[in-house]
Amino acid sequence: MLRIGLLLLVLPALLLMGMFFVEQMHISDCAQAGGYWNYLQGQCDLQQQHPFIPLMVRRPLLVNGGMLLSCLGLLLTIAGLYRRRR
User: Fold this and answer.
1) Domain span holding position 67
2) 34-63: per-residue pLDDT in tens?
3) Whose CA is closest to 35, among 55, 49, 54, 25?
4) DSSP helix/strand/coil, 44
5) Per-residue pLDDT averaged across 2-7, rounded?
6) Are 37 and 30 contacting, i.e. CB atoms less than 8 angstroms apart?
7) Structure confidence at residue 1 (pLDDT)
8) Which residues pair with 52 in a beta bridge?
9) Euclidean distance between CA atoms 18 and 25, whole angstroms
10) What gap in Å lies between CA 5 and CA 22, rounded to an integer?
11) What are the Cα distances from residue 29, in Å, to 15, 25, 48, 74?
């Protein structure tokens, strides 16, 4: 139970951070090319500016699901640490 809890605690957060930083890398490359990032389409637009739309608004199921899995992992980890070893 402890191993599963630790995996559920760490993996969703790493995946969300990975997605975020990959997107930030694309946004930075687009800005260096003189363009504007279209958050809804996930593409660089050289014509017009687009409003910032947070990841939570664009992918709420992914963010909320990842956080719920992390909370479940925390509970399983705590339960695994308190359980006696046989």
Assistant:
1) 2-82
2) 999 999 999 999 999 999 999 999 999 999
3) 49
4) strand
5) 92
6) yes
7) 86
8) none
9) 11
10) 26
11) 21, 6, 16, 36
